Amino acid sequence: MQRRTFLATAATPSFFGPFGGSDGRQDDLERDDAGNPAPPDHIEVRDDREELLEFQPQLSYDHLPWDEAREAKSDVRGMYGWTAESTEHDVIAHYYWVRSNTQRSVLWYLGWDIDFKDAHFTDHEPIIVFRQPDKTIEEVWCSGGHHYGLRIDGDASNFVEDRVAGEQTHVVLAVARPHNHFFTPALSADGEYVQDFAEYGSWLETRETWYDNGRYSSTSYEAVENPFVFYDGDREHWWREDTRDAWLARNVWIPLGLSQGTDRDELAYE
Question: Which of 10, 80, 119, 259 could form a disulfide with 105 if both were Cys (CB 3.0 to 4.6 A apart)?
Fold first, then answer.
């Protein structure tokens, strides 16, 4: 799907609901007729399934007890991917979102029968795989805790070979509970493709519904629509800056070390 086609499709009123950009957002993205964001001019988008599967991340639950791993996998609704190419960059971005039914509060896991601001339904966690045209992985960015970025170099040990002969194109990411973010697993950890226990699909086909239902109400549109802001180092997290979620992540959750599996100094946190 090319960008012009994407904009024409996105402007179809039947796909969109009341999320029309009146929330004080500051960004440079174009809007369609419904007020929803579109990728910048330098980006072409597509959702070729076979290409996305060649670089699909694997998820690992080996660090969890058997019953918790089963619960975590049953909570996953699916993984949804798309691809972005930019005339301003020599890398290709494969962008995936893992959707879960719930995110429980860390307080609940500490034995307190309450849910705080970090608890909600339908959690969405991002993974971006940047690769060269020759299919060499350059780097991976993912949510490493409370939507702050975890950068993984393409030479790291947690990549495996499978769908591209001679190339380790699949990053293996451990899934943290209760927040569903990702961290680097042990060398012995095995990864799984999400379609072994949930749905795999196109993000371009589901994005309208997610915007319509307010799934990105606290998320930076630039972080959603332009993966290259992470490659350029222009962003360190996925939050919209003026949200309470962004404030809590920066001032409470991360300083207190409440990002299971990921140390503060591993995150793009300054």
Answer: 119
